[in-house]
Amino acid sequence: MIARVTFTAKNQIAKNDLQAQAKASLRFWGVSGDIDASAKKSMEDVNTNADVEIKLFYQGELGRFMLQSGSPSSISAGTAQASFLQAKSWADQFIQKACQHRYAYRPLLDEYRNIEGFPDDQVVPDYYVAHRMSYMILSQIVVISDMKDYLLSRTDLDIKLKYSIQVDEIKMVQLGRNWVQSTVEKPEDAITTAGELLEKFDKDFRAKYEMLMPQKPYIAGVKVVYGGYPHTDPPSGRVKEVDGRSEDINYGRGGDFVWLVPIRTDHAEDACTSFEVVIDQVPDEFGNLVKGSKDKSRYLRCKKSSSKDKIRRLALYRRKEAPAPRVTKDSSAFIKSLLGRSSVDSVQSIWGFAGRTSNINQGRHGADELYLFWSPRE
Fold this sequence. Notes:
This protein is of the alpha+beta class.
């Protein structure tokens, strides 16, 4: 029988102090009768400073008997004293039945030590922000790779141009790898360096070869699509939220489900160049963005200008309410608070959008801020 006892610190107690308490608490093992006051005090100290888990392992014929008798494989009884007493009771049964055991046995203690000299206050880097930014970078590398594959499949492009395309794609991938390596060392710079990298992707590859890609239709407006139980599935082709949050305009406000679906056109003269949020009575040709809720009616109006770029891409950005960031010694908490309050301008820039509406949820007390982004490029 082997009882493996694991002590996991649950506060800032020094390793040596916890180790001393753990050893003292185990002095009762093998002693018959009640636990003495000293051992009880050590168990109380352990219970305050650590979680205790005991795993029981058996070998041979007696092990089969013990398991059939109900011996658990793991003991975590709430308090250190209860866990130790339960483990000791099974050990006492094991010793009483020792004559049925075919193997010699002896006490065995496995010790797992940290690296000597490892500081107790070691700061562990927080990669929460870097992890989120890495998905944005990966999505753009996928776009670049898809562009490269399409361009190489064209039979009308010469060999030299195709070679340049391949080399540039490799350079973009290498830049992404370099970003990962630098961010491992300085995760606190992830937002700034990712923004710079995405701009470089756009300038040195996407903008460079975009004129060789098939041009997608323009956007001539948005259709407002409603849903309600039991029809709750969002429509295909709807405008997505950049960070994967809800695309339902009425999210968290009650009322109907409300989604936006772009209206496409091949004619530049029919294309929108911007959108405007109008909080007013909704004309018949528009859809109420807050249908079914108690908030003021509002709609999106497509604006057209012959001197401005035509819109080809739309996305929503839902900005969650977050408390103002506080500079503290906890760098990870500070970084998370910064991310929660990323400015709308920075998010718009990072995702490569040229413009946006005002807050669609203006005047809806307690609602997330919600913006419609647009870009003349896919």
